Amino acid sequence: MQLAGWGRFPRVDAELIEPPTAQAVITVLKESDEEGTLIARGAGRSYGDSSLNTQVLSSRFLDSFSSFDEGSARLRCSAGVTIDELLKVSIPKGLFPAVVPGTKQVSIGGAIAADIHGKNHHRDGSFCDHVESLTLALASGEIKVCSTKKNKELFHATCGGMGLTGVILDATVNLEKVPSVFIRSQAIATKNLNHTIEQLEALNDNKFVVAWVDCLATGDELGRGIVHAGNFTEDAPMEYVRRWGPSVPFNTPSLMLNRYSMSWFNNFYYWLYNRPAGEDLDSYDSFFFPLDSIKHWNRLYGRKGFLQYQFLLPEDTAQKGTQAVLERVADAGKGSFLAVLKKFGAGNSNLLSFPGPGLTLTLDFKNEASLFPLLDELDKIVIENGGRHYLAKDARLSAETFKAGYPQWAKFKAVKDKVDPQQRFSSLQSQRIGLTTAKDERL
Ligand SMILES: Cc1cc2nc3c(=O)[nH]c(=O)nc-3n(C[C@H](O)[C@H](O)[C@H](O)COP(=O)(O)OP(=O)(O)OC[C@H]3O[C@@H](n4cnc5c(N)ncnc54)[C@H](O)[C@@H]3O)c2cc1C
Questions:
Q1: Ligand 1 pocket by Cβ (under 6 Å)
Q2: Would 326 be classed as within a structural domain?
Q3: C-alpha to C-alpha distance for 44 and 365, rounded to whole angstroms
Q4: Cα-flanking dihedrals φ and ψ of residue 199, to 5°?
Q5: Taking a C-beta distance cutoff of 8 angstroms, is the pair 31, 48 a contact?
Q6: What is the per-residue pLDDT for 353?
Q7: Ligand 1, from 12, 29, 41, 168: best to mutate by most atoms within 8 Å of Cβ?
């Protein structure tokens, strides 16, 4: 069957293996051809090719909960359970995951493998900072329980390790007690990039802070945007929300996405929030997962799909580097509906985790031939400014660019070589960025 990530680029003909139980995963690993390679796949919400190979092992049926200790707010579940399924169980008990991404449709295995971050990274770190332990099936079929105390090296390689150390079977996750699942938020319109960064810093005491940036604004207005900040509020209910919205039934003709339509959207969004300061009350669902209510929204980018480009710049070069990227994007006329700027807090000890102190900008681009030279130029700006790219969004980074951004890559590779000497776990991404060798080259 044909498989792709959320960006629908690239696509690959793959054999999809869907073991019904953890024991069946182990059997697949023990019985499969030692020469073949495969990669784990959760909900397929990474944008590029990190969960693609010619053989893909799905965690879809690893969807059970094994324990839930309300007192310690600790839950153990299988790796295929999604954040949404977890919320159904945790919200009635007044508990919420400490970190959630921009969609609730990701699996726990995928959240660990990418060590995902949310709008509260500056306060609460990334997803794996709240993972008590995980169970990993190695290429040999052997099982390892890993945590910051047990099999520590393997834990720090698996968290953020993009599925390359083994298949995560289950995890024990620490949740957070919350007063309600509603967020009282404010939105502040900013005039330019300096003002946006200033506001991100000024609002840093809030639990959740994120800025939308008008990436088609130029000149004195370059980097203008809307900074959203919020906190869980006490005076609201604790209820699981099910929002129904429209569905995009087919691929939108990609001609509809052009400089003019994006410029219209960006101006409209800016106008919508450019109003006197006031407070809004949002359900967790609309605050954290706004796009989830539009089913198949990724079809809006047309048949060829789209690429998401997310990078991190350290604090000392963040303003300069972000400005250079935005100028280059605006010059090229390649707008993005979703330009999101966040300020990260401290990083952690995971070898390939993306977050670290500084600013991260996310941009979406329609897939077209003229995009690739532009992204190569942006890569240079990011690397020259000491930054790196987020692997969960990537579909095209070179090995050189990846390695420049992740100085711990060789340490990661050494751990992988120990537990997977034959490189059984391999994705199109890991082959491209030089973490594994393509099968043909190994012969
Ligand atoms: C609308 C949208 C918003 C997003 N917002 C954010 C955000 O705010 N912050 C953020 O950090 N990310 C964000 N993401 C990205 C997403 O959180 C990550 O890509 C996440 O890894 C997806 O999880 P998944 O279950 O879909 O994994 P997949 O896409 O299926 O796989 C991703 C990686 O995880 C590995 N993997 C999956 N399951 C396992 C397993 N059981 N064992 C070992 N490895 C496994 C795969 O091999 C692959 O390398 C967003 C994605 C979308 C579509």
A1: 5-6, 39-46, 50-51, 59, 79, 101-103, 106-107, 109-111, 113-114, 116-118, 162-163, 167-168, 291, 392, 427
A2: yes
A3: 19
A4: -70, -35
A5: no
A6: 98
A7: 41
The residue whose C-alpha atom lies closest to atom 51 belonging to ligand 1 is 45
DSSP letter for 193, please. H
Residues of the chain scoring pLDDT < 50: 443
- Is the Cα torsion angle 37, 43, 49, 50 positive or negative in sign? negative
Residue at 377 is within a domain = yes
Which of these, 275, 278, 257, lies nearest to 266 by C-alpha position?
257
- Spatial separation of the C-alpha atoms in residues 39 and 416, rounded to whole Å: 14
Tally the domains of the chain.
1
Q: How far is the CA of 51 from the centre of ligand 1 (A)?
A: 9
Write out the residue range of the structural domain in which residue 268 sits: 182-400
214: closest CA among 227, 201, 229? 227
Q: Write the CATH number for 329.
A: 3.30.70.2520
Whole-model pTM?
Answer: 0.96
The alpha carbon of 279 and the centre of ligand 1 are apart by a number of angstroms equal to 32
- Give the count of alpha carbons within 13 A of 89, CB side only: 20
- Residue 338 has a pLDDT of 79
Does residue 72 lie within any of the structural domains? no
Give residue 266's pLDDT.
Answer: 72
Quick count: other Cβ atoms within 10 Å of Cβ 235? 9
Tell me how far apart the alpha carbons of residues 115 and 99 are, in angstroms, rounded to a whole number. Answer: 10
CA of 423 to the centre of ligand 1 (A): 21
Q: List pLDDT tens digits, range 372-397.
A: 999 999 999 999 999 999 999 999 99
Residue 91 lies in a domain: no
Which of 103, 92, 98 is closest to 42 using CA atoms?
103
What whole-number distance in Å separates Cα of residue 271 and Cα of residue 264?
10
